[in-house]
Each structure stands twice: as structure tokens, then as C-alpha cells.
Records
---
Amino acid sequence: MPILVILLWQQRWQNRPTIGLSESSFRYWPIILVFLTAALLPTQLLLLANPDWRAPYWAWAILALKITLTCLAHHGGVPWMLHFAPALSLMLFAVPWPTTLEQQVNTSLLGGVVIATSEALNLLGLTVARSGNTLVFAQGQLGVEDACSGIRSLHGSLMIAYILGELGRWKWPWRLSLLLLATIDAFLLNILRAIFLGWTAVVQGTESADRWHDSVGITITALTLFLLVAAYLLVERKLSHPIQSTRENRNGLHRQLVGWGAFASFLLLGGTLMASSMWFKQSDRTIFRKKLVIEWENLGHAFTHEEIPYRARTQLRYTEGKRTSWISSEGTKATAYHFRWDRDRISLFNAIHRPEVCLPSVGLKWIESTETINITTSNGTPLSFQGHQFFSHNRPIFVWFGVWDHALKLIDLEGAPGNRLRQTWERKRVESRQSIELILTGQQTWPEAEASLRDWVSTTIKTTSTPTNR
């Protein structure tokens, strides 16, 4: 991303506006610059206290963009700020979309891809049915995961379209048309990708589809780039504006880029980093990090540790993770996921990694959720879980889920802004995070599911505590 921004900047630099006294003499630019830099401090505090909240990331990016544009305005006036803004705005593509927007777009794309894929495969003579976001056929089933929805391809296609429009200096209506073309391109090509993987799964088996998954994804990405570049080159001569250097006109006024405002902002930036660290630092306080330990030898049943898919590992970025399956003496099939994150490993995807978000994408239908219940571990530590009920092929599936901080206090992943602000004010920085998800298949009622959870937690889970100086 920095290289692309520099490339667009260099192109804009060739025909930058001539500096005039009337454009660059606005006396309040340094004050605005200092004000914007000072706003970084509360943003940094919110970011450190809530590393999985995307709002502070957007605030940081927008403030950085505004600070840079203000420096340019102070040097060359408003014409400079407007001239370089399109090139510098590319940095906003590096920020993940807001969680709510991403979920809505992802759900819409995923549903469209599944419907189009199932219809296309049936037209090709293959008998395929849909169950949520899962393709069901005689040999098995294939889940159309979030990675196949097109959200990542859409994000990349939009960025490429923006870069091409900026390179050609297209007028904004044509740039918007290119962005629309990129959206359609990403959607249709991901349908093509899902059709190929679905056909492979039906004809050659789901293992073959898994082997082809990444290769097809790379091919689709390359094809997306090729189609957008081809469309750009097709109309480039008619829409692009030649870049004429204005260097020969620059023998007049030259202004100092680094004034007192820039110097004060530089000091404020350093102060922001030190102040944010001191805000959360309590050197005279020792905290105890509690860690959940699952003693599988106490389960009383045969169990199997299973590999977590590569795409899940790269998204969640956990420090430790394990998936384990077993069948109880009553015939209940159980699968448990246990993850732990250190402070520097907490991912932006943690906030959307919860059953009611993830499981519908693999074909499960959400029915209801329960209030949290408290269960005691084998060594007497209380844990809070929330229950969710799903249906798959007319069979109930019960899921118990909990995410806790370093003190094993339950975390609200939806994170109301008020709670996040309160956490920042109370100097509660995330030290670590851990989660447990227990999926039960074969039980019919909530009391049965709760009894299984209580038995598993009280038998196999214990806590350890490690003192840590902050």
C-alpha cells in the first residue's frame, strides 16, 4: 500500500499547482494541524483498549489523512490539498470495513453466490440442493465459506479500480463507473469460482475441491485484475488527461513546509505514544492472568484432535488453538474449539467470530439464544457461557460459547460503544483473550445440552493463574 500511494503521489507531483501567496497564507493552518494531531491521543487510547474494534482504526486513518492534507494546505494552499487528496485517499483502502457493513455485504454476496451456483450446477445436469449456505449432493456436501462470498475479491477489485481511475485522471463519473464494473466483475467471477469448486466436489469429491480451492482463488484474482486493466486500456485514450509538468512555472514563491505547526504536531505525536502507554501502565500493580487448561485425559471417552483449517488460522491469528471431537456414551457427538490470544495477536476478526455469525455460513439455521449461565470448573472457577440453538437437516444442534479476558470475565463481542469507552476510561487494556465453543449434535432439549456442558466443564477444565507485572 505505501508503494502504491507513493506512485500516485509522484504522478500528482509532476503537475502540482503553482504556489501563490493568497493560497498559502491562511494563518490558521498550523492551529488546525495541532488540533488534528491532538485528536490522535484519545483515538490511540481507544485502540489500545479495544484492539478488535474497527472504529479507532478508521479514526486513525482519517486523522492521518487530514493531517497530511493540512500540511500540504499550509505549504501550497487549498489547491495543493485538493490536488493531492485523491492520491493520498488510497490509504483508506487499507482499513477493514466497519463490522456491520462487512457482515451485511458478506451475507448478501454469500447468498447470491450459493443460489447462482446451485442453479448453474443443476443446469449442468448435477443434482444439487441448497441448505443455507451449503451445497448438498449425493456424495456429501460443500460449504460455501465466507472466503468464497467475494468480499475479499470485492475489496481488492475496488482498490484496483480506484488506482486505475487515478492513474488515468478520469473524471469522477467515469471513476464511479469503473468501481461499479469492479463490483460486478468480482461478483460474477466468484460465482464462476464457486461453480467450478462445486462441480469438482460433485464429480471428484470434496477432498479434490479443497485441493483446488486456493489455486482457483489465485486464478480468479489474476483474471479480475486482467479484466479491469483491459477495460481501462480500452477507453484510456478517450478519458485520460495528459499530465503536463509545471516545473518551469515554479521560479516564484517557495514556502517553508515545516513551520511551527508541523514542529508542534511532531512533538504531540511523540507525546501521544508516551501518554497512551502511561495511561495503561500501573507499575505498582501485579495482575494475575488466568488460563484455561483442558485435561482431555479426564474426559472418559475416546477423543480426536483435529486440524483447524488454514483459512481459519490465518483469519483468527490465535496464539494457541485446538479442535477436538468425541462421542459420548449417550451417542451425542461433540466438537470443542479452544482458542487463546496474547495481547499482540488479537485480530480484528475476533469480534465477528461467534456462532450466530459463523455457523449460518455453513448451512445451519439459527433458532434462538439463551441468557448466560455460570458453570464451575474442576478447581472451582466460575465460567459464563451463552447458548445458541441451530437446525441442520431438521436436527437440533446446540452450541455453547464464551469469550473471556485475562481475569476470565465474559467479554461482550458486540461491544456497545458506551462499554468500550468505559473500558478505556477505567484503563482496562486487553492483556489476553481466550474462548471455548462446544457444539453438540444428537440432543433434543436445552436441559440435556446444559447437562452435557456442565459435565464436560466440571470434569475436564481447570484454571491456572500466573502473576504478571504491568
---
Amino acid sequence: MDLQPLLLDLLTPGEIEFDVKSQKIIGKFAGIVLNKFNIHLLSNKLSTRNRVLSTNL
């Protein structure tokens, strides 16, 4: 069995757009968490994708 890397985008285009807009105003408002640093969001997405891939392989 040969192992190959699998690249996944964890953020949707809308979430990326939110991050880009948020980065422009992040200095003005405290408490903004960018999606790319939201560990809970990313770990849930990664777990879901892992589950889907493992059941479909």
C-alpha cells in the first residue's frame, strides 16, 4: 500500500473572505478571532473530513 499526501482546504471561501476583512479592522476592535486561528472550528472540520474519507476509502 502506497501512502500519498492529501491536501484539504479547511476554510470555505466565505470564511477566508471574513478573515481578510477582519484583518483590516482587527486593531480597532478587541476580541476578533480569525477563522484560521479558531482551533475548535478547524479541529471539527478536520475530524469531519477524516471521518468522511475513512468511510469512503
